[in-house]
From TrEMBL:
Residue spans of biased composition, Basic and acidic residues class: 117-137
Protein keywords: Cell projection, Coiled coil, Cytoplasm, Cytoskeleton, Phosphoprotein, Synapse
Segments for region (Disordered): 96-137
Entries under Pfam families matching the protein: Cast
Official protein name in the record: Ethionine resistance protein
The organism's taxonomic lineage, starting at the top: Eukaryota, Metazoa, Chordata, Craniata, Vertebrata
Main location as per UniProt: cytoplasm
The organism's place on the tree of life at top rank: Eukaryota
Length: 137
């Protein structure tokens, strides 16, 4: 009988030890998840900033092409070289406009993905209840 009580006491001690380890591991996991969430938010913010800067650079380049086209058109020179330059600038501007459209689509997709991620995470947080170490046996 004493052997059984001793074995039972040993099992209880092991159980308490495992509960402590579980609690420690759960705490560590929560901290790491919080850190990961912070890093993901920073990454999204940086991506949005980069895409915004790319859009601004493209808009500036388009404006510069427009200004150059206007200057050449106002120069009243009907030379073939001037007309070729205007045509080249218009092609370059069209290429930049296409790039701007692509960047805008990329940015909108990123924003939509972020919106979905935020709402999925919020829904997951409401349904993801972890049991306390006392509830786990």
């Amino acid at each position: 009988m004493e052997e059984l009580l001793g074995a039972m006491e040993k099992v209880k001690q092991e159980l308490e030890s495992m509960r402590a380890k579980l609690a420690s591991t759960q705490q560590s996991l929560c901290e790491k998840e919080a850190h990961l969430t912070t890093l993901r938010a920073e990454r999204r913010k940086h991506l949005e900033e980069v895409l915004e800067m790319k859009q601004e650079a493209l808009l500036a380049a388009i404006s510069e092409k427009d200004a150059n086209i206007a200057l050449l058109e106002l120069s009243s020179s009907k030379k073939k070289k001037t007309q070729d330059e205007v045509a080249q600038l218009k092609r370059e501007k069209d290429r930049l406009v296409q790039q701007l459209k692509q960047q805008t689509q990329n940015r909108m997709k990123l924003m939509a993905d972020n919106y979905e991620d935020d709402h999925l995470k919020a829904a997951h947080d409401h349904t993801n209840h972890k049991p306390s170490p006392d509830q786990v046996i």
